[in-house]
Design a protein that fits this description.
This is dTDP-4-dehydrorhamnose 3,5-epimerase. By secondary structure, the chain is mostly beta strands. The chain has one domain: Jelly Rolls. Helix content is 9%, strand content 39%. The chain has a 6-stranded antiparallel β-sheet, with no helix packed on it. A 5-stranded antiparallel β-sheet has the order 9-8-11-6-13, with no helix packed on it. Strand 3 and strand 4 form a beta hairpin.
């Protein structure tokens, strides 16, 4: 297993060995033992799976607040996405910074997103099967988000965001400055 640090503190790209031949491939997508040996000790308790049938679907930026925050181990089974994470931990040296990654069925990369990050992705192909493990259960009351097109964050999405396919929920998240003003969400304490 290869673990690569990202530019954001505590977030990592993970690449497992992939064994392929004329029939296809095999990979061990997750091994607690391998992760523990790499110093990544998480107790994943929930797996999630989404399907996006069109290219241009943008989901996010999502997170769970407070004690319901989740570490996520993300991968794409079919298709490709541009995956974005934003550090929301106020005491972090990378607070308010974002980074984007291409995750796809062909590159087999996984992204480890720690608690205290907002997360979103844009589908680059049709029929994207997107899966992720979480180390905490989903809680509807702790569900939150930040506007994907926030001018303070200035995320460089690889499409004209006016053409993005969005849920009503994702069209109405607060801006980053509004998020900061809420003061009921301080990840520096985690």
């Amino acid at each position: 297993m290869k673990v690569t640090e990202t530019s954001l503190q505590d977030a990592y790209l993970v690449e497992q060995a992939v064994y392929g031949d004329h029939r296809g491939f095999f990979t061990e997508s997750y091994s607690r033992e391998d992760f523990n040996e790499a110093g990544l000790t998480y107790d994943f308790v929930q797996d999630n799976h989404s399907l996006s049938v069109e290219a241009g679907v943008l989901r996010g930026l999502h997170f769970q607040k407070g004690e319901h925050a989740q570490t996520k181990l993300i991968r794409v089974i079919t298709g490709a996405v541009y995956d974005v994470i934003v550090d929301l931990r106020k005491n972090s040296p990378t607070y308010g910074k974002w980074e984007g990654f291409i995750l796809s069925e062909s590159n087999q990369r996984q992204l480890l997103v720690p608690k205290g990050f907002a997360h979103g992705f844009l589908t680059l192909t049709k029929d994207v099967n997107f899966v992720y493990k979480c180390d905490n259960y989903y809680c509807a009351q702790a569900d939150a988000g930040i506007a994907f097109d926030d001018s303070t964050l200035n995320i460089d999405w690889p499409i004209n965001v006016e053409k993005a396919i969005l849920s009503e929920k994702d069209k109405n998240h607060p801006t980053f400055k509004e998020f900061e003003a809420m003061n009921d969400f301080i990840y520096g304490r985690i």
